């Protein structure tokens, strides 16, 4: 009887208390479901690989968006991949080994002429990015003084090569007969060629120019500066098939990069942190100078201007006249991805 009584008590306990336990368990499970739903985006991030070319200011919005968590806020896991040149990155993009690339918009025109559907997700630069640097002791006064001279560009058919050939041609100087243009790379390689007299002038992007000015003040000078010539410059570029397959990711990339571009305009400390990551061997003078100039070069709104796109087309077709013009509205997705022209903020 004692055993029966115990069983009876147990049945009543489970009947009365079990209901409460079930209710508590149900509530706990519901809370876990809600918590899982809330945290699901962190587990469902879209992985995006972005090709970056060399080391220059055009990379800063991408790296800053990673640093600030802007991509993660858009539910994206962005992985940058470094390439030595735009041509290699183009092959990777077309071949599908990367999803997007930040490189010169020249490639958009070339790809479109090959029947491939490139798309600009967001612009990075506002102007041409090069200067022409010469030894100060030579006393050159203008491009016309370079007739018969040897001029260094990063590589044949590169952004720097096309810009130089276009500029010379616009002054009536034949780039194939009146001068000798050679590919010498960039950075320390180009500087060594200039210092040794292997070339009489070099096309230098801003980081290289600052190196000349800081490391050897007065030894070199800028013969021509194109950095106020409006140009579509570099941009984040993908293929239409990727955009079609990942519309939210495309929008997220554009929004995150735009936030970084806007931060560049107002937060020098954030810019300096990325510049120091890019150039760990450079001193404070370089870091400060580069940090100060970046906002002047980077687009504040991510849009590619009609004038800048037209200038890119003009320059590229001056060296590759077989290329057919491509309507900007067919390849520029910035307005569609970013919506209105209002500010995207944190």
Features:
2 domains; 346 residues; D-Maltodextrin-Binding Protein, domain 2; globular; 5-stranded mixed β-sheet; alpha/beta; disordered N terminus; 14 helices; single chain
Account of the 3D structure:
Helix 6 links the parallel strand 6 (150-153) and strand 7 (180-183). The strands form 2 sheets. A 5-stranded mixed sheet has the order 2-1-3-10-4, with helices on both faces. It is 50% helix and 17% strand. The protein starts with a helix and ends in an 8-residue tail after the last helix. It contains 14 helices and 10 strands. It is globular and about 60 Å long. It folds into 2 domains: 46-128 and 230-338, 3-Layer(aba) Sandwich (D-Maltodextrin-Binding Protein, domain 2), CATH 3.40.190; 130-225, Periplasmic binding protein-like II (D-Maltodextrin-Binding Protein, domain 2, 3-Layer(aba) Sandwich). Its main location: periplasm. One of its GO terms (biological process) is alkanesulfonate transmembrane transport. Residues 47-268 form the Solute-binding protein family 3/N-terminal domain. One of its GO terms (cellular component) is periplasmic space.
